[in-house]
Amino acid sequence: MPFMAVDVVCAALDAFGSGNEVLLCGRGAGRERAMMLLAPRGRFRWSTFQPSQLPLGAWVAEHGLSPDHLAKQVLASRVLGGLCLELSMTQVDPVQSQREVDGPSTRHDDYVPTAWLEVSGTFDDYWAARGKNLRQNLRKQRNKLAAEGTAAEMRIWREQGDMAPALIRFGELEGRGWKAEQGTAIRAGNAQGRFYTEVFECAAGRGEALLTEYLFDGRTVAMNLGLQRGGTWVVLKTAYDESVAKSLSPASLLRETELVHFFQPHSGIERIEYYGRVMEWHTKLTDQQRMLYHVTCFRWSWLKRLAAMRRGVIARPGTATPRGQSTGNPVRGQVGGHAAISAPRESD
User: Fold this and answer.
1) Is 168 found in the same domain as 105?
2) Residue 252 maps to which CATH number?
């Protein structure tokens, strides 16, 4: 995934790290086979570095090395120093790592369902398969704009020099909405603003930035910030002008216009990933969903049983943890570590 590029992870550390993160490098057969960025999460507990700006936990590995196997290797190696009793691999994507069943010392917890959309065939066929209410609603909105003489257009930004100005406009959208009230809106001088500016300028330099902007009479009313790698576009941030009349949905109009563009031959987009909890608008655009999950590995099996008792859940070996149970939000925080990574065994 493009958000696991080294510059993205470094930008996240600079903006949101506490300075206590540990980078573990796993070697085997004379080469690097896995890396994971971990942060302490309390006494004797660690988890993958997981700021909310990263859709998945910060780890990469060769194909075939599961998060369960890697967590067990880390606990067995004692490479973290001191006593580590529990290690969590957060927000794992089953597309990258298929979810395993719970073991004597491992637990798998649902995180959130996420949606994606396959861009194949023609837009007309895809749109005809969407709900009648969606199609009629957006048609009415376009007719309303035309009747009022409002010119609506979408612009796409990819060049490095366009990123900072685009992010300023994005921040202005957020600054007029609920995120400004919560203090989480992107601003030029805050951590969010520094992070996303660095991420998208670096991505644009290697041809992986793709930002979309929707305008009414030249005024920005909605934007999507995304990264493209190969044929996949990952939407990281969305904002719209909350002052627009309730009879219009700039974000929905932008998404429809995006799809018209992406369904064109040679657009370069074959799949759209919407990482994050499935919302109602996702279900109107796609039927595709999957569950992101957490993996927690305990040093000893009795610790897992103790943790289950403390949570009021008695888990049987070989069964999945009940939906809704989570490992919690990790704390963030730099040193270094190294461990030998062996091949998984059948029992792993």
Assistant:
1) no
2) 3.40.630.30
Residues 6+ apart with CB under 8 A from 181: none
Is residue 277 in a domain?
A: no
Amino acid 30 reads G
Angle, nearest 10°, between helix axes 132-147 and 250-262?
110
Q: Strand 219-229 vs strand 152-157: parallel, antiparallel, or unpaired?
A: unpaired
Q: Is the same domain home to 38 and 166?
A: no
Same domain, 264 and 127: yes
- Report the C-alpha gap between 87 and 281 in whole angstroms: 35
Nearest to 59 by CA among 9, 110, 131, 126: 9
Please check whether residues 129 and 102 belong to one and the same domain.
Answer: no
**Amino acid letter, residue 130:** R
Q: Which two tokens stand for residue 20?
A: 């206590």
Reported as a single tens digit per residue, the pLDDT across 304-326 is 999 999 888 654 554 444 444 44
Note whether 246 and 327 are same-domain residues.
no
- Block residue for tokens 């009414």: 216
Q: What angle do CA 133, 136, 140 make, to 5 degrees?
A: 135
Q: Name the token pair of 222.
A: 């909605």
Residue 218 Cα distances to 171, 215, 221, angstroms: 17, 5, 9
Q: What is the pLDDT of residues 165-206, one digit of tens each?
A: 999 999 999 887 656 555 567 777 788 899 999 999 999 999
Strands 219-229 and 232-240: what pairing? antiparallel
